[in-house]
Amino acid sequence: MQQDHLVADVGGTNIRIAIAYKSELNHIETYKCAEFSSLEAAINHYIEQNQLTVNKACICIAGAVNDEEIKMTNMDWRFSAHSIEKRCAINKVHLINDYHAIAMSLPHLSSTQLITMSKRKGQAHAPKMVCGPGTGLGIAQLVPIGEQYHCISGEGGHIAFAPTTEQQMHVLAYLFGQHKRVSIERLLSGQGIVNIYQALAAQASQHPQPFDAKDITDAFINQADTLCVESVTLFLEILAQFLGDLVLMNGAFGGVYISGGIMPRIIEHVDLEQFNQCYTHKGRFKEYVDQAPLYLITEPQPGLIGAAAYLYQSID
What we know:
Blueprint: E1 4-10, E2 14-21, E3 24-32, H1 39-50, E4 54-61, E5 70-71, E6 78-79, H2 81-88, E7 92-97, H3 98-105, E8 114-116, E9 128-133, E10 137-145, E11 148-153, H4 166-176, H5 190-203, H6 213-221, H7 226-250, E12 255-258, H8 263-266, H9 272-279, H10 286-289, E13 294-297, H11 302-315
Parallel strand pairs: 1-4, 4-7, 9-12, 12-13
Antiparallel strand pairs: 1-2, 2-3, 5-6, 8-13, 9-10, 10-11
Helix pairs in contact: 1-2, 3-11, 4-5, 5-6, 5-7, 6-7, 7-9
Binding site for ATP: 8-13
Keywords: ATP-binding, Cytoplasm, Glycolysis, Kinase, Nucleotide-binding, Transferase
Organism: Shewanella surugensis
């Protein structure tokens, strides 16, 4: 009997499940998490629906992953690798963080799954970084070791915001009035765009509209509101300089990749020349950062691809 390898990407709202053969995905299904009482129930539904016998699985989770029981933040799901193995009759289950999975996908993404944002070529056997402003700010590093890759992940989105201009200092002062500590995620996320908008409105002595991130980015795309345009422009400036900081910290000459839901929506309206100038604006180390190419991930399922890559690397 054929035994399949299963991969899954578990978010706060949806769960995506597929069968993997190396980097090829088959039978991709998306379910609403709320429709199932547990993660195991969702996986068993998929297995029964596709009449599978699963040997190994890799499941990436939007949240912290450890060797103990995992509790999802936005729903009443508790599970562990052992509970999934037992209740879903799977021989071996790997649980990894979602940005661990996205990092593992990077060597497997082709030019059709990316937008090249710079003219730099980068180095083939060098570290890569992924940074994803979305609901939060995920960050991970991928390091080549021989013929395999090792992911170094953490909570880089929660390092302190370091302003470099007077305008950015004003935004920091505004946010410092609301938070005991201002992390970079307070600016580089959906809520971060709203925070920037409100800070600039206060600076201009304007009453801010009750906009969310989509309202502000839509107004930026359509050039419909000056304050929204200024807010997204500043968001892009801060993002670019932060990506350059990642290169300084990690020597990511294999490339810096942007993921998350914000940038794909606005990329056609981004001034890439200005973005790259902010990215490499590092004084004496401009040429150092200028060695690292920039990419935007457009592939809709990098988590599943990365989970498959992790699974097959563990098999090898």
